[in-house]
Amino acid sequence: MSDPKPVHATPGVLRRVSACAGVVLAPNPGPMTLDGTNTWILSAPGDGPEHPNYGHHPSAQGRGEWPGPDVVVVDPGPLDEAHLQAVAATGTVVLILVTHRHGDHTDGIDRLHEITGAPVRAALPEFCRDSGEPLRDGDCILAAGVSIRVLATPGHTSDSVCFRLPHDEPETVITGDTVLGRGSTMIDHPDGSLGDYLRSLELLGQRSGATVLPAHGAPLPDLQEVCEELTEHRLERLDQVREIVSGLGRDASVEAITDTVYADVPAGVRRAAERSIAAQLAYLGY
User: Fold this and answer.
1) Where are the residues of the annotated region Disordered (predicted)?
2) 256 neighbors 244 (Cβ within 8 angstroms)
3) Domains in the chain, ordered, with CATH?
């Protein structure tokens, strides 16, 4: 009998996964959120009990415990008081970043901002707080001793961004819902676009060897390989949709096509499946 798959994180507990990043898992598991939303905690590399050699990392400013006194939070997660208090307790929160607009990432923004006083930055101005400016593609942020590069990666939503941590070793990329720890993401049509999503996968696929730090599910090795697999899956799905439309007719409804493509989809993700089908039909020009 094989060993059970280890849980990648425990709600309310900070788990370090790289020189610069750790995760606090939110207690909101579900069909769309998998194990729950990963709230990422970023801090300068240092020596900690789990990784005794991280103080020798080239970007470290000396030896010390991890996380350092200052931290950056990526995706506060849901409005859950115990979760947000656990996130705030990881250190002095100097900045809050958001990967995209969905509530399982953003509902806790105002409460975490209230607890910590930290500015909030997101691609959409309505999610920014205090002095936080909207995120732009190519922005370079230095906070809590960590260099963070912003990558615009629309597709899942129009405002989706990823965050590169170039001084992690190997490099890590916080991918939000653009790349999940397992499975493939929903294209939130009409705000999301399959064409944009495929271009974002191509962009992220240039980060060969980078570790994926997703918003849901466990970290994955080699972002390039993951993006290639996701692209292949999407192209195969497009071929399937073309074939189904050919049989049902171009006037077939989204619901009818979803019934055929996702015949066994659980009720809890049916709406997401329909949105993804709508995005595929728009991409194909139907």
Assistant:
1) 44-64
2) no
3) 13-233 (3.60.15.10)
- Tokens standing for residue 233: 């899956």
What are the pLDDT digits (tens) for 91-127?
Answer: 999 999 999 999 999 999 999 999 999 999 999 999 9
State the pTM of this model. Answer: 0.91
Q: Is the dihedral of CA 268, 219, 275, 259 positive or negative?
A: negative
Q: Classify residue 132 by its DSSP letter.
A: P
DSSP bridge pairs for 30: 34
d(CA 64, CA 52): 10
Residue of 62, 23, 33 lying closest to 45 (CA atoms): 62
**Phi–psi pair at 237, nearest 5 degrees:** -65, -40
Q: Name residue 259's amino acid.
A: D
136 φ, ψ (degrees, to nearest 5): -130, 150
CA distance 201 to 182: 15
